[in-house]
Amino acid sequence: MANFPFQRLQNDLAELIARSPAGQRLPSEPELAKQMGVSRATLREAMRAFETQGMIRRRQGSGTFVVGKISVMEGGLEVLESLETLAERLGLEISVSDLELEAAKADEASAESLKVGVGAKVTRVRRVIRAEGRPVAYLVDILPEDVLHFKDLPANFRGSVLDLLLERGDSLTSSRANISAIDATAEVAKALEIQRGDVLLHFSAQLFDSTGRNVDYSLSYFIPGYFRFHVNRRVGGS
């Protein structure tokens, strides 16, 4: 029974969101907390669940907006595929915005992953993936300059470094990803138009070629409500 008031708050918020049209701005946090009879901290905790589901979107300095019905990208993790390939198979339209291509120097994390020296020349590709016009993922790929020079990216680059390497014939064999839930940093929150500290699904991955070389160190940040990943597993001993 201890959680009943919080459950009632979530039910009240669910009803408010359900009857609000997509794009409508919800009352301000202080106003809504007063209306619901709870503290701002409790309200913020309850709202986080709806953000995770992609039902509402908080924008710094603008307020909280109802997103409306969303399309979910669902796929297995057994085979590495680009978001573009996944979206195409599901019949979803996605686009790329805020594309940044730059020559950079490897920091400690990327140098360790790519097995290069700190300060080695690398190419960094950053972009936002949008589904139905909404930011849903922020992707960063870091590659040794001899694998990909930022000036060599084609004018029709669609956002997937994986697809680019495959299309040009690179011999890619495997990928390893560490998956975690993290709080959005200021940089990522700004790119995804969310609040700093909002929970994101984070992939830190390495892409290997046929020689065993890591040719791409990538950092992917997903808004959970827009994605549903799964893994098919065999029962041990069977």
| Fourth CATH level, the homologous superfamily of the largest domain | Chorismate lyase-like
**Main pleated sheet:** 6 strands, antiparallel
The run of helices and strands is HHHEEEHEHEEHEHEEE
Estimate what percentage of residues fall within beta strands.
Answer: 25-35%
Low-confidence stretches: none
Helix fraction, binned, reads 25-40%
Summarize the structure.
By secondary structure, the protein is α+β, with helices and mostly antiparallel strands. The chain is built from seven helices and ten strands.
List the helices and strands and how they pair.
Blueprint lengths: L3 H15 L10 H8 L3 H13 L3 E4 L3 E4 L6 E4 L6 H8 L3 E12 L2 H7 L6 E11 L2 E11 L16 H7 L4 E12 L2 H7 L6 E11 L4 E9 L4 E4 L8
Parallel strand pairs: 3-10
Antiparallel strand pairs: 1-2, 4-5, 5-6, 6-9, 7-8, 8-9
Helix pairs in contact: 1-3, 2-3
Task: Summarize the structure in words.
This protein is an alpha+beta fold and 238 residues long. It folds into 2 domains: 4-66, Arc Repressor Mutant, subunit A (Orthogonal Bundle); 73-230, Chorismate lyase, CATH 3.40.1410. It has 7 helices and 10 strands. It has a 6-stranded antiparallel sheet. The chain starts with a helix and ends in an 8-residue tail after the last strand.
